[in-house]
Amino acid sequence: MQTRSNAVRLRAVAIAIALAVLSTAWAFAAEAQSTEDRDVLFQVSTIGALLEGVYDGPVTFGELHRHGDFGLGTFNRLDGEMIGFGGDFYQINAQGVANRVPDRWQTPFAVVTFFDTDQSAVIDRVRTYDDLQQLIEKTLPTPNICYAIKVTGQFDYVKARSVPAQQRPYPKLVEAIKDQSVFEFRNVRGTLVGFWMPEYMKGVNVAGYHLHFLDEDRTSGGHLLECRVREAVVEIDYTRSFYMVLPEQADFDAADLRSDKEKELHRVEK
Amino acid sequence: MQTRSNAVRLRAVAIAIALAVLSTAWAFAAEAQSTEDRDVLFQVSTIGALLEGVYDGPVTFGELHRHGDFGLGTFNRLDGEMIGFGGDFYQINAQGVANRVPDRWQTPFAVVTFFDTDQSAVIDRVRTYDDLQQLIEKTLPTPNICYAIKVTGQFDYVKARSVPAQQRPYPKLVEAIKDQSVFEFRNVRGTLVGFWMPEYMKGVNVAGYHLHFLDEDRTSGGHLLECRVREAVVEIDYTRSFYMVLPEQADFDAADLRSDKEKELHRVEK
Known about the structure:
The structure is a homodimer.
Chain A (H helix, E strand, L loop, with lengths): L1 H37 L1 E5 L2 H5 L7 E2 H4 L5 E5 L6 E5 L2 E5 L5 E3 L5 E2 L2 E4 L5 E8 L2 H11 L6 E17 L10 H4 L4 E17 L10 E8 L5 E19 L1 E5 L4 H5 L7 H8 L1
Parallel strand pairs in A: 1-14
Antiparallel strand pairs in A: 1-8, 2-7, 3-4, 3-8, 4-5, 5-6, 9-13, 10-11, 10-13, 11-12, 12-13
């Protein structure tokens, strides 16, 4: 009986060790999630590289899922506008049609985060995209950090664009968008998804606003050019951590990222 | 015997589970180390905020240790020049004396990484800091990523500076460095520690070189102003990930980070 009792005790100790170690592993996993992902704006490459025609990147959407459930970007070959929303990534192709993005697809430029609302407000009858920008900007606590922005509601009007896939040798983005398609929506429910970045970030991302649109049915949308808001909820996620991964890739390494690209960026974004 | 044999088997299974789970926990820890820390340039705040006189920050050196064993920066109240080297952080105070930094001290601006040599070269008889910069720049595989740089050897001459702690209300950095002390070293062994950053990073860090000096005995050093190299080994760590954490702090939020600070930066760095 003594021997069996010892055996039971040993078994109990071994199981206790297993449980303790298992909970440690879970703690590691949980911390990895909370500290490294949720409050971090994760960016693939730079906007400057995209302007220079670096349209292929090594990061898959499967990997992007690990860094955020909300954001925007594009696809390899510049094949449309990307919107990350509610945990899914969508491609708005050159016909303005939204498709779920397979995990194996890759992106040359993307910005994502896990969206947690830090402030929200109801707005109505905002006549232009400019007015919307000013309205939101007034509510930001400081111009010195990054914000993820989500505007959900009823729009009288939305004007958005997308771009077709490009062929090598890739043209610069100012050239590529000459092929852009522009879509107009009237009386549409949907969501604007994107970011506001401080001016000092202009070397790596778009200073100020960059928003994409997805309609409520998740069937169409694009890069936002203009809008008129009937009624919407504006949600903002304060983001003080910025994590940028530069692609390990000959195209990126060879791109001329030195010149000031503000004028080109303005032509591309508006 | 059957019962005892079962007990032994159960014990063996329990121990096997414990070992499997333990190795999982180790794998988590190892991955956390390799993918999130070692290849990442970790930065506290922005150089622009430091120029504007944001001299207090919430990040301790205890926390900084988790993000790197190599780098540079400063201390709360701008109390000297910081060098991270060989796993330790040093303060070069206004008298030019190097002290080990206690974990509880805090920093308003720091850049660190875990240094892993990707390329190295022996150099000799480099007459000026400008010449050294050009010599290293020629060997960089691309101007589009960040590099950690370590130059270890014998120097005919080193000119370095440090700054005294400031009092609130804090002056801007261009004002504060009017109080700087300049130190000259002749025939000294030691190490230059720092970074080379792409031009597009100029909004958040110093574009080009930023190096600090620590002598071999780790007793003195400072922010590098000039040097003449007799013989040294240049080691370079390619860094394609950049992780910036902005302080959650009223001073930072209120600073004017919008204006172009290149001229001020040039006066402060040289």
